[in-house]
Specification:
The chain is α/β, with parallel strands linked by helices and 139 residues long. It has one domain: P-loop containing nucleotide triphosphate hydrolases (Rossmann fold, 3-Layer(aba) Sandwich). 24% of the residues lie in helices and 32% in strands. It is built from 5 helices and 7 strands. The strands form 2 sheets. It has a 5-stranded mixed beta sheet with strand order 4-5-1-6-7. It has a two-stranded antiparallel sheet with strand order 2-3. The chain is globular. The termini are far apart. The model has no long low-confidence stretch (mean pLDDT 84).
Amino acid sequence: MAIYKIIVTGSFNSGKTEFIKCISEIDPITTDKPVTENGLKDIKNFTTVAIDFGTITIDKDIIIHIYATPGQERFKFIYDILEKNALALIVLGDITNKESISSMYKYYREFMKIKRLPAVFALTKKDLPNKIENETLDQ
């Protein structure tokens, strides 16, 4: 049996934990703790402080482990640990937050410094009424 690893990264509140919850076939292992940073407490109550983990079985011989990183800068030391044996990177950005979108490339670069990985960029929360329209993103 082959086990492959995919890393999901992005800014605080970009949807990494929700992505794992939606895609994993097991109840995901999460490391959510109360938000302690000023300014972030107003956005949400809990945040990832280590990694979130889920799995997807492709067939009886292929399993994918999915690891989501914390979004805060102070936890980026975990990137070196996660990149070992990783096959790909998914970078998420919150379409309701221009800063989250503009930081996507920063997260990508941090991983590329460690190991070059194929990457997918995706925007989350497109269903919310306060999403940023394409015309605004181009500016």
